[in-house]
Amino acid sequence: MGVPGLFPWLVRRYGGEIVLDGPVWKAAYPSGVDYLYVDLNHLVHRCCHPEWPTPPPASELEMFAAVRASLLHLVEFAAPRALLFVAIDGVAPRAKINQQRRRRFLSARAGAQRERCTAAAHAELRALLGDEGAAALPEAEQCDPPWDSNVITPGTPFLTELSEAVRRSLEDQLQTDKRWASLAVVFSSWDEPGEGEHKAMRFVRAMRAHGGQASDGLHHAIFGQDADLLILSLCSHEPHFSVLREATGLRARGAADAAAPSDALGDELDDGCLYASVVDAVRAIQFEVVSVGALRLAIGRRDLQLGGGDARGGGGGADDGLSAELEEWLDELCCLACMCGNDFLPPVASLLVHENGLGIAIDRYMPLRQQGHRLVRRGIVDFATLWRLMAALSPDESGRLHAAQRRDAQRIRREAAAA
Fold first, then answer.
1. Whole-Å CA distances, 2 to 246, 340, 351
2. CA-to-CA distance for 267 and 329, rounded, in angstroms?
3. Handedness of CA 361, 13, 29, 263 (dihedral sign)
4. How far is CA 46 from CA 27, 135, 310, 332, 342, in A?
5. What does the alpha-carbon distance between residue 240 and residue 215 come to, in Å, rounded to a whole number?
6. In angstroms, what CA-CA distances link 101 with 98, 108, 156?
7. What's the angle, vertex CA 88, arms to CA 277 and CA 85, rounded to 5?
């Protein structure tokens, strides 16, 4: 689920140069990356219940084929040289479970309300038209119940079968594809606790702790659509890091024919593939890349007025010339972002991201920072500074809440008038 609104906020504040189109990024890294980490759950949701107008798969076997095809397309795009780490979400922490439960109950209740409203509208229309008019109305279509996406949950038979299908696919690629000959593959299934992106970042930290491999100029790339990947990547303090995302909006439409996968991928998928349109669907997926190195430099320049090299950093953006102050500020920025909510913490009501809550928190914190206070010291939150920050935010909190309430009321009135 991530942090709604965080990605566009970062782009607005720190500049669009932190986001590269897929072909531009590929030109910067023609030989690929060293390590690729894949949060598979996004691909699973995209393939199993795609958005309109993409038709949904007719069976679970077709879903498995679509997931496999999408994963191969992603690997071909990123071209990892040393490691491929694929993770499916395991059992989440209690806070995330509570949030999932609340969201699913609300979704089920909204669906039941829609069905009742539809039935009531049909009944009212038939009553208004009378017997003769109602006879001319087409009969309501008897549709099969929609596929329940709640089965994409650790411990379900569906996710168990999908995990085994992914495992077999990875083993098959290692045995049959020469391009995978020198590639180490790690697969973390749902039976390992933790969300996919957190398992991937835990792996990065483990490599860093054992020999410092992660800091030797190796390029890491992680795929996922959640904006919290950007926060996790900043917390890693790795300058050579990229976050791969599916392109959205104009980027996706403008690059519809760019960087298509090779014919070999199409031939492989066509051969006995259960999902007939999977090749076309996979080739329609385009990527954009957030350069975490460029983001680090932009943060240093925008917030700390630090100098540095080329902000684009060739897609990776090493910032060796910057001081350790940047690393300290990145920890503090990530802590401030937590105040705006995430998958585990509810947001402070007056600090919502889409209302520039994070920008307000930064503006209130900077005077404290200039006085020598630090929100995070060596990875530990300083609660005395946090208390001072809350005190600085409190005077105009009521005004922000009332303004948000007025905006919500205006939005509701506009929607009612449009209906």
1. 15, 11, 16
2. 49
3. positive
4. 27, 41, 35, 34, 21
5. 9
6. 5, 11, 16
7. 95
Structural contact between residues 222 and 243, judged by C-beta atoms closer than 8 angstroms: yes
Over residues 299-338, the pLDDT tens digits come to: 999 998 876 554 334 344 444 445 788 999 999 999 999 9
Question: Tokens 């209906």 map to which residue?
Answer: 419
Q: Which tokens go with 103?
A: 């969201």
For 108-130, write each residue's pLDDT tens digit.
788 788 878 878 887 887 788 77
DSSP state of 90: -
* Per-residue H/E/C for 108-176: HHHHHHHHHHHHHHHHHHHHHHHHHHHHHCCCCCCCCCCCCHHHCCCCCHHHHHHHHHHHHHHHHHHHH
Percent of the chain past pLDDT 90, that is, above it, reads 34
Residues 6+ apart with CB under 8 A from 252: 246, 286
What Å distances lie between residue 271 and 171, 179, 267, CA to CA? Answer: 18, 19, 6
Whether omega for the bond prior to residue 53 falls within 30 degrees of 0, making it cis, is: yes
pTM (two decimals): 0.81
Q: Which residues partner with 376 through β-bridges?
A: 381
Among the listed residues 243, 207, 236, 208, the one whose alpha carbon sits nearest the alpha carbon of residue 222: 243
Q: What is the phi/psi pair of residue 276, to 5°?
A: -60, -35
